Structures are given as structure tokens and as C-alpha cells.
């Protein structure tokens, strides 16, 4: 999907509408899950109505006074689970599209074969030398593709540890039948061995959240950096789906240098 | 009544002594006045106590649906109980007498005993039709040969079972079980004690109940624990006695999963019982284990002649299938966001949730909230302290710090001494510094490049101009 306009800039199509929806669903639900997850790990808002516990600025504002009127942990957990379901659905949609997308399947970029490794190193080199910018093509650049894949593996790990904690309260059956806890046990019980019991799984879940936060900041930074340095409008991709390419202006830039 | 019982025993022992002096081991033991209320094994009727092997294959799933053919199961259980009663009691009168000797003597009336059996039946998740059978099994249990081994432990379970001020039938049964070997309460010592133990193993091969308390050190070939006059290692003793036991029960967290002796770095190489024997072990973890769970498991074993349904960690499902957090009476305060923040604050007085005081109820499976401790009266959360997760493997490593939320625990990572949040924030800070450094570097580099470009341009312009001229 490359179009030329009068200025000589090419327009490159990068994200289909479904991919953009997945992107923003993930963004919103991850932010939601970080906030609610922090609360579940360490309940920072205390809705106690007793005077000696009134050391929270929210007491008196949010506190209604009766236990049954303030099911704050219930709501935090509820939203955490809703966010988790959205993330899981988005993850599986991403996984499908990474292989079977008709327009730009991600696997063509992230499989580290042939010149893909070379291109990755070229991009890293470019980040530190600002020279020899790799050409903008139809597909993701391999460095970004690999980092995105790593990020989705983190999401997968969060899913496994999260579902292990979720299935812990099941006693062999559920509202939808026995297959649901059985499925969760089969797919997530390995985390108990890897991380050392349910407490270890909880701590792993907490720690991976920090890796995801770091990824978010890295991701925003690189996209802004690219937009400023390359002047190709990379930051626009998740909004409109398009970015620009200056590669047909190569001659001019060569002349400039 | 208890004193009466003992005098009777002594008389009987003396009579027996006159009868057979040829068996040296037995007579030696009897001289030392061991509780010998159980009659000598009736050698003439071997079929009676050989329970039909095929009957052990029946389905037993009390949590959902006991069996497809419940009448068949009841028949099997009744015939088992009949056989066991024939084996361990001399006559029918003896059964009632035994009840009086054991329970009435300890201030438990028949009525209270029946109430307790109803409690135990429902705790075992059995229908009421089993209640009279549970009562019969509890009575038989006081006569079943029993070996209690103490490995590396603090004897906390023994103390919990034997030193109750107002014992419930569960504790009374554990006081009165026909203990052939139990280091803390047996009368014989030294060689005689061991002879007694080996005699029981020989005599009741495949029938005696083996209860092990305490972890088993395996490092240095088990030399960290040697017991008795012959200086045998705990590892040897456990292995040899477990070989011929009817049922093997690991009581307490140490025997089940290694517990505190096996806590990191575990220099003695302590392990749970299931790691040293290849036979099936029923784990009754907790620190100490609830007597109801031990007696209930033993009663269920007497009823069905095999281990009850176990979870993946070898614990009986009827006792350990519920998560403490889900059954806790403070759960409502957890959902409402009402937490105890300091010991003794107003929240503590109002019995708010102990989640922020490090309660490990969300990670622990046990029935303390249902069949409670201290004469069925209390459990940690009721007493105002959080759960420490004592029925879970490696709780000393995984559940600490006990009085802080799990999020404040140090993570197990080589060369990292930090909580998940501390380490995460440190990494996040490092990443932030890296990003900032790269941004500054980019800015400086770009400015330099631009300057160079401008210089080059100027040069080019000059050259071009010169050419033109």
C-alpha cells in the first residue's frame, strides 16, 4: 500500500483498523490493570470508617460509612478481571494476525532469519549513530517486531500467572462447567513449579508488570524519537494507520550530504 | 475409670505372663506394663481380617457422588467394620466396654460422642447414613495397632493432640489409640522399645497404621538424625517400617513437605515422607495439624480400607479442598477494602481483614475456618493474627514475611535482595536514565551533524561559485 503524492513523500500503510483497535484496547486495559493490580497487591485506599484509620485523604470523600456500601476491593478485582479478559482476547487476535494477516503479517518481520538479524543490528547502530537510516518498507522493521514479540510474550506470562491465581479459588467446577478450571489448571500449573508456589506466582506477576511498564515507556520514547529524527510521522501509525516514507527522496538527501 | 482400666490391664498381663513365657519379646514388653488392652491376635480365623482385596477397587468420591451403587458401598463398609470388630474386640460386650473405658471415662457422654460423630461425618462430606458407621470406626480406631515415629521436629503435633485441657473425642481417640511405639508417651525404653516396634511390624504386617511426624534428613546418608539404642538413622527406620504399614500418614508440615527443617538453605537435606518411600503417603499438613483431620482420615481409612481422595499435594480433599481466604469470616471486610493497618488499631478491634498484616489465607488450603483448633473453638484469624500458610509446601520460605503483605516479600532471584516492587522500580529507573541519556545524546549529535552540514554547504557554495567564475 504505497501511494505517492505531489511532494514526493510516499504514504505507507502499516496498521489495519483491527490492529489499531487491538492496539488501543491493549493500551487502555493494561493501564487499567496496572492501577487495579497495584491496589490488589497493596490496598492503598483504606475505606475504614474508624478515626484512627482516617489517614487517607480519601476518607470522608469516598467512604460512605457502611461496609456494604464500599466494596472497593470487589470492584478493583472486577475491573482487573475485565481488563484481563480484554487483554487475553486482544492477545489471541494479535497472535492470529501475526501469522495470518492478509496485508502485513508480523512474522515476516520478526522471524530472525537471513538478513533480518543484520537489519536489526543496523537499526540499533542507527539509534546510536544517527547515520545510515534503514529504508522504510512495507513491513515493520525487524527490531521493533522482535521487541513487540517479546512484549507479547510478557503478556502471555502475565496471562499464565494471572489465570493460575484466578483458578486457585475454584474447587473443581465452575458456573460454565468443569472444563474451565481443568483447562486453566492444565495450561497454567507449570507456573507453580517455575516460580515456587502461589506466592511466587504472585510476585512474578507483580515483577512482570514492571517489565511491561518499562516497555510502555521505551515504546513511546522510540516512536517519538523516530517521528522527530526521521520526520516520517511514525507516531501517526496507531491513529490513522499510515506513515510516510522519504526513501524516494534518496537522491536529494545524498546530494545534501 | 482410667485407673480402673489400667489395673485390669495389669491383671490381664500377669495372667498372660503365666500362660506363655516362650515368646521373649512379648513377655519383656508386658513386664514393662505397656497398655495391652488389645487381645492377642486371633490366629485361628485368618479370613476375618483379610478384607476382600477386590472390594478396595470400588469408586469412592464423597465430594461429588459417592458411588454409582451406594448400597454396594455400604455393604462393603459394613462387612469391613464387622471384620475389624471381630479382629480387635474379643466379643460384642467388649465393644461397648471399650467405649465406656475410652470416652465415658473422659467425661464424654454417649450423646456428646454421637454429636461429635455427626460433626465428623459432615466434615468428611459424607451423608448422615454414614454417621453410625463413623461412630463404629472411631471406636475401632482406639484398638488399631499404631506406630508413631518422630523424626526431626518439635513434637508440636504430639503436644497438640495429647495436651488438650478439654479434649474432644478426636483428641481422646488419639490419646487412647493402641500406640505400640511413640517416643513421647511409651513406657519401654532402649532395646525394649525397639523390640516392641519391630514386634508390631512383624505381627500386624500390612495392618498397622504408621504416623510419621517430622522431616527426614537425607544428607550424609541420614546421619543428622539417629534414634534409639542401636543408633539407626531416621531414614532407615522410616523406610523399613513404611514398607509393611497398612496406611502411611505424614502428620504436620515437616513430615508432609519438609517444613521448617527443610527451609532454605536446608543443610540437613530434610525432605517430606513421600520423598523417601515409594508407597502412597497421606499428608495431613499444618503446624500443628488439626486432630480432626488426622482422626477423620484414619476413620475414613477404616471405613473404606484405602486412602481417601487426595489433591495434587497428597492431602485429603475433604479437609484441604477449601481456600482459607474463601471461607474466612473476615472476607467481607476484604471485599469492602477495610483492613487492619496496625496491630491493635480500631480496625483490629472491629475484626477487619488482616490482608495488609500479612495474612496468607489467599494462598492456603486448609479447613481451620470450618473444623477449628483449640477444642473446635478458634483459628488464627479469629484470634486476630493472619494465616501463615502452614499447610502449604515450603511455607517457611514462600510465606515469609509473615506479618507483611505478600507484595513486600523478597523475590527469589540470584544476587537480588529486593521486593518485586523495589527491583521493578530500580529497573524502571535504569531504563528512564537510559532513555534520557539517549535523548540527550541524540540532541547533541544532531546539532553537531547540522553544524557540519552547514559548513559543508558553505564550502560547497564557495567552490561552486568559484567554478562558475
UniProtKB/TrEMBL annotation, chain A:
GO terms for cellular component: plasma membrane. Pfam families: Ni_hydr_CYTB. GO terms for molecular function: electron transfer activity; heme binding; iron ion binding. It is found in: Cell membrane. It is a multi-pass membrane protein. The chain crosses the membrane at residues 21-42, 79-99, 143-170, 190-221. Keywords: Cell membrane, Electron transport, Heme, Iron, Membrane, Metal-binding, Transmembrane, Transmembrane helix, Transport. Signal peptide: none annotated. One of its GO terms (biological process) is respiratory electron transport chain. SUPFAM superfamilies: Transmembrane di-heme cytochromes. Its main location: membrane. Residues 14-232 form the Cytochrome b561 bacterial/Ni-hydrogenase domain. Belongs to the HupC/HyaC/HydC family. This is Ni/Fe hydrogenase. The lineage of its organism: Bacteria, Deltaproteobacteria, Candidatus Acidulodesulfobacterales, Candidatus Acididesulfobacter.
UniProtKB/TrEMBL annotation, chain B:
Residues 320-402 form the Cytochrome-c3 hydrogenase C-terminal domain. GO terms for molecular function: 3 iron, 4 sulfur cluster binding; 4 iron, 4 sulfur cluster binding; electron transfer activity; ferredoxin hydrogenase activity; metal ion binding. Its cofactor is [3Fe-4S] cluster; [4Fe-4S] cluster. Keywords: 3Fe-4S, 4Fe-4S, Iron, Iron-sulfur, Membrane, Metal-binding, Oxidoreductase, Signal, Transmembrane, Transmembrane helix. It is found in: Cell envelope. SUPFAM superfamilies: HydA/Nqo6-like. Coiled coil: none annotated. InterPro entries: Cytochrome-c3_hydrogenase_C, NADH_UbQ_OxRdtase-like_20kDa, NiFe-Hase_small_C_sf, NiFe_Hase_small_N_sf, NiFe_hydrogenase_ssu. GO terms for cellular component: [Ni-Fe] hydrogenase complex; cell envelope; ferredoxin hydrogenase complex; membrane. Residues 20-46, 446-469 are annotated as: Disordered. Residues 20-35, 453-469 have a biased composition (Basic and acidic residues). GO terms for biological process: anaerobic respiration. Residues 154-300 form the NADH:ubiquinone oxidoreductase-like 20kDa subunit domain. The keyword Transmembrane helix applies. The chain crosses the membrane at residues 423-444. The keyword Oxidoreductase applies. Heterodimer of a large and a small subunit. Belongs to the [NiFe]/[NiFeSe] hydrogenase small subunit family. This is Hydrogenase. It comes from Candidatus Acididesulfobacter diazotrophicus.
Amino acid at each position: 500500500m504505497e501511494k505517492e503524492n505531489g511532494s514526493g513523500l510516499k504514504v505507507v500503510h502499516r496498521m489495519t483498523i483491527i490492529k489499531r483497535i487491538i492496539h488501543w484496547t491493549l493500551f487502555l486495559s493494561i493501564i487499567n490493570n496496572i492501577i487495579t493490580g497495584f491496589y490488589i497487591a497493596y490496598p492503598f485506599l483504606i475505606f475504614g470508617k474508624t478515626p484512627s484509620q482516617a489517614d487517607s485523604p480519601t476518607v470522608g470523600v469516598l467512604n460512605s460509612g457502611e461496609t456494604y456500601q464500599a466494596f472497593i476491593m470487589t470492584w478493583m478485582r472486577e475491573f482487573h478481571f475485565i481488563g484481563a479478559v480484554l487483554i487475553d482476547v486482544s492477545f489471541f487476535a494479535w497472535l492470529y494476525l501475526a501469522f495470518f494477516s492478509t496485508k502485513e503479517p508480523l512474522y515476516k518481520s520478526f522471524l530472525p532469519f537471513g538478513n533480518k538479524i543484520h537489519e536489526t543490528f543496523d537499526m540499533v547502530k542507527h539509534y546510536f549513530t544517527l547515520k545510515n537510516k534503514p529504508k522504510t518498507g512495507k513491513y515493520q522493521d525487524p527490531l521493533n517486531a522482535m521487541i513487540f514479540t517479546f512484549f507479547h510474550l510478557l503478556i502471555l506470562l502475565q496471562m499464565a500467572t494471572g489465570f493460575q491465581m484466578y483458578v486457585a479459588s475454584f474447587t473443581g467446577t465452575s458456573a460454565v462447567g468443569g472444563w474451565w478450571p481443568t483447562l486453566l489448571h492444565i495450561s497454567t500449573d507449570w507456573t507453580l513449579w517455575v516460580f515456587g508456589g502461589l506466592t511466587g506466582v504472585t510476585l512474578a506477576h507483580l515483577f512482570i508488570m514492571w517489565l511491561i511498564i518499562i516497555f510502555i515507556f521505551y515504546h513511546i520514547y522510540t516512536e517519538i524519537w523516530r517521528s522527530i529524527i526521521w520526520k516520517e510521522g511514525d507516531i501517526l501509525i496507531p491513529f490513522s494507520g499510515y506513515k510516510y516514507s522519504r526513501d524516494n527522496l534518496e537522491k536529494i538527501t545524498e546530494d545534501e550530504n | 475409670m482410667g485407673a480402673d482400666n489400667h489395673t485390669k490391664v495389669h491383671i490381664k498381663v500377669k495372667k498372660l505372663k503365666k500362660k506363655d513365657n516362650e515368646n521373649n519379646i512379648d513377655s519383656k514388653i508386658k513386664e514393662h506394663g505397656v497398655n495391652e488392652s488389645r487381645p492377642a491376635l486371633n490366629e485361628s480365623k485368618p479370613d476375618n481380617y483379610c478384607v476382600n482385596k477386590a472390594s478396595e477397587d470400588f469408586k469412592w468420591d464423597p465430594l461429588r457422588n459417592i458411588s454409582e451403587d451406594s448400597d454396594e458401598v455400604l455393604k462393603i463398609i459394613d462387612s469391613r467394620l464387622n471384620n475389624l470388630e471381630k479382629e480387635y474386640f474379643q466379643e460384642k460386650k467388649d465393644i461397648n466396654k471399650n467405649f465406656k473405658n475410652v470416652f465415658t471415662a473422659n467425661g464424654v457422654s454417649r450423646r456428646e460422642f454421637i454429636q461429635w460423630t455427626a460433626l465428623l461425618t459432615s466434615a468428611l462430606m459424607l451423608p448422615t447414613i454414614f454417621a453410625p458407621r463413623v461412630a463404629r470406626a472411631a471406636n475401632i480406631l482406639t484398638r488399631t495397632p499404631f506406630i508413631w515415629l518422630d523424626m526431626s521436629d518439635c513434637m508440636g503435633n504430639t503436644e497438640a493432640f495429647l495436651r488438650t485441657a478439654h479434649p474432644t473425642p478426636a483428641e481422646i481417640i488419639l490419646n487412647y489409640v493402641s500406640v505400640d511405639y511413640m517416643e513421647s508417651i511409651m513406657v519401654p525404653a532402649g532395646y525394649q522399645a525397639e523390640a516392641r516396634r519391630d514386634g508390631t511390624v512383624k505381627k500386624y504386617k500390612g495392618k498397622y497404621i504408621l504416623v510419621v511426624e517430622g522431616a527426614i534428613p537425607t544428607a550424609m546418608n541420614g546421619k543428622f538424625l539417629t534414634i534409639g539404642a542401636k543408633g539407626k538413622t531416621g531414614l532407615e527406620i522410616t523406610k523399613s517400617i513404611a514398607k509393611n504399614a497398612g496406611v502411611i500418614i505424614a502428620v504436620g508440615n515437616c513430615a508432609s513437605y519438609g517444613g521448617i527443617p527443610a527451609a532454605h538453605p536446608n543443610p540437613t537435606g530434610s525432605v517430606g515422607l513421600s520423598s523417601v518411600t515409594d508407597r502412597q503417603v497421606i499428608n495431613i499438613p499444618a503446624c500443628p495439624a488439626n486432630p480432626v483431620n488426622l482422626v477423620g482420615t484414619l476413620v475414613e481409612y477404616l471405613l473404606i480400607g484405602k486412602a481417601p481422595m487426595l489433591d495434587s499435594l497428597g492431602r485429603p480433599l475433604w479437609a484441604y479442598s477449601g481456600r482459607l481466604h474463601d471461607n474466612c469470616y473476615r472476607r467481607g471486610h476484604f471485599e469492602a477494602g477495610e483492613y487492619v493497618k496496625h496491630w491493635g488499631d480500631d480496625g483490629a478491634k472491629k475484626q477487619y481483614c488482616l490482608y495488609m498484616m500479612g495474612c496468607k489465607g489467599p494462598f492456603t488450603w486448609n479447613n481451620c475456618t470450618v473444623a477449628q483448633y483449640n477444642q473446635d473453638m478458634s483459628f488464627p484469624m479469629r484470634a486476630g493474627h493472619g494465616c501463615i500458610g502452614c499447610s502449604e509446601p515450603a511455607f517457611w520460605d514462600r510465606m515469609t514475611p509473615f506479618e507483611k503483605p505478600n507484595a513486600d516479600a523478597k523475590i527469589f532471584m540470584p544476587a537480588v535482595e529486593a521486593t518485586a516492587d523495589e527491583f521493578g522500580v530500580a529497573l524502571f529507573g535504569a531504563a528512564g536514565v537510559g532513555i534520557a541519556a539517549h535523548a540527550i545524546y541524540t540532541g547533541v549529535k544532531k546539532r553537531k551533524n547540522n553544524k557540519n552540514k552547514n559548513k559543508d554547504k558553505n564550502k560547497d557554495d564557495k567552490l561552486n561559485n568559484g567554478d562558475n567564475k
